[in-house]
Design brief:
The chain is built from nine helices and 30 strands. The protein is an alpha+beta fold and about 475 residues long. Helix 4 crosses helix 9 and helix 7 packs across helix 9. The structure holds zinc ion. The site of zinc ion (ZN) has 5 residues, from loops.
Length: about 475
């Protein structure tokens, strides 16, 4: 007893010394992938082969209150303006005024009612009642998000076109969040409850990836594919990803690709926009220059905790810098990557989300062969610097916007237009308008500590994804 106590004391002492002497390990925060909200589910049990769900689980999923009438052996579940009346040993259930036949009776098992899971799919779908779905494949009942459900997609190959068709309750929420052949990413509204088909045709791989909202999928596309198109068909409740061999009109091109393998990122320059006598956007008490600096500091901490890179801020105080000053800091630090942080302002409160600006990666030369798409860059002597990094910059912008979309911090837009802050910078880079301060929703999010921290973590996710280049 005494001996073991002494051993414990020694071990504790050793641990204490280690804790004091050894530097705290820079453990990466436990968030490599976006958080995924686990849907509310309830288990299904089989009684005589019929799937049943316990009434307490049903009440929880529906957010309903139970009223038991023992003399009638009836239980009513009430939620919003809806009432569901169940009777023990009776296969009929009354939902509001409608009587439904469930194929099997409601049972009483050890004092708790068990309801045939078939009820889940028969409930009315309106905003006053949570939508339930009986997932027979995994024997569970799921409470669906407002955006509903994504079913099993079908894959067809015909005439050089490969079509991946997802049944979706909200096709209008579908979007492409990254568009390279290796990582074509789709985000769809709704919870995916289906099974993915084996790849075929121009689709080489298809897998689900985590997304904070809706469901996301990553596709790998064959080299010989010429373009893609995402078609949301609201009437038919489906979303179709079309992959074509030819770069047909109306078909989008894939993002330019870079050499495979991780990128070397030793120095990251973060450039908080504005400063000093230039406040940037001011809206509802939020000041762009202050938020940009606070975000830059958080982003520095995020990056340093998970990447082996030095982070340099163009300013770490409230002071004014010219574009040349910023470029000089970046070039002198030998930046491998520059991110200029800003917040947007719009004339309307409805406009929200993030916009990335990067040098145009695709050029249109005029007859003389010297004009570049992208406006200002054509006029300036150092235009070649950022343009040389355009493909990398575009990939960076895609990676960061994809991270924002997957975490529900969008909507996002990508503009291939030379950002003023990138002029003269000899590195891949982007200017990110992180959110709109003129949108109350965006402003509330980014002016709260947790919201700004989350934003920094998301941008770091994007930078890390770009660095890994997978
Ligand atoms: Zn700005």
């Amino acid at each position: 007893m005494r001996r073991s106590a002494a051993l414990v004391a020694v071990a504790l002492l050793a641990a204490l010394i280690l804790a004091v002497v050894a530097p705290a390990p820079a453990a990466p925060p436990p968030r490599g992938a976006p958080r995924v909200d686990v849907p509310d589910t309830a288990p299904v049990r089989r009684i005589d082969g019929t799937p049943y769900v316990a009434v307490n689980d049903l009440a929880r999923l529906l957010d309903a209150t139970k009223f038991w009438k023992p003399e009638l052996r009836k239980l009513a579940l009430r939620t919003g303006r809806h009432a569901i009346t169940l009777t023990v040993d009776d296969p009929f259930v009354v939902v509001d005024e409608t009587t439904l036949w469930l194929g099997a009776p409601v049972r009483s098992l050890r004092g708790e009612l068990q309801v045939p899971a078939a009820l889940a799919d028969s409930l009315p779908s309106d905003s006053a009642l949570a939508r339930l779905y009986y997932d027979a494949r995994r024997d569970r009942v799921i409470r669906l998000p407002a955006s509903g459900r994504i079913g099993t997609p079908t894959l067809t190959v015909a005439n050089g076109t490969t079509r991946l068709t997802f049944p979706a309750d909200r096709p209008d929420e579908a979007l492409v969040v990254a568009r390279s052949r290796e990582h074509l990413r789709l985000r769809l509204g709704g919870l995916f409850t289906g099974v993915l088909p084996a790849p075929a045709g121009l689709l080489r791989d298809l897998r689900p990836i985590p997304s904070a909202i809706g469901s996301a999928f990553e596709c790998a596309i064959a080299r010989e594919a010429g373009g893609f198109r995402l078609v949301s068909d609201a009437a038919a409740h489906r979303v179709v990803l079309e992959l074509t061999r030819e770069a047909l009109p109306g078909v989008e091109a894939f993002a330019p690709e870079s050499a495979p393998g991780p990128r070397t990122v030793r120095v990251i320059v973060i450039d908080p926009g504005h400063g000093g006598d230039d406040p940037g956007v001011i809206a509802g008490g939020a000041v762009e220059k202050d938020l940009a600096l606070a975000l830059a500091r958080l982003l520095r901490t995020e990056i340093e905790s998970r990447m082996n890179a030095r982070v340099v801020l163009t300013r770490d105080a409230d002071r004014a810098l010219t574009a040349e000053d910023r470029a000089e800091v970046a070039n002198r630090a030998r930046a491998d990557l520059v991110v200029s942080l800003h917040f947007d302002g719009f004339p309307t409160a409805q406009a929200r989300g993030a916009t990335a600006y990067c040098a145009p990666a695709t050029f249109v030369a005029d007859a003389r062969g010297d004009a570049l798409r992208g406006g200002v860059s054509a006029l300036l002597p150092w235009r070649d610097l950022p343009v040389r990094h355009a493909v990398q910059s575009r990939a960076l912008a895609e990676a960061v916007l994809s991270a924002l979309e997957l975490r529900g911090e969008g909507p996002t837009r990508l503009r291939e237009r030379m950002p003023y802050a990138m002029l003269g910078v000899n590195a891949p880079g982007m200017l990110l308008e992180c959110a709109a301060l003129t949108s109350p929703a965006d402003r509330d999010r980014v002016t709260q500590d947790a919201g700004l921290r989350e934003l920094a973590a998301t941008i770091a996710d994007g930078i890390q994804a770009w660095q890994r280049n997978q």
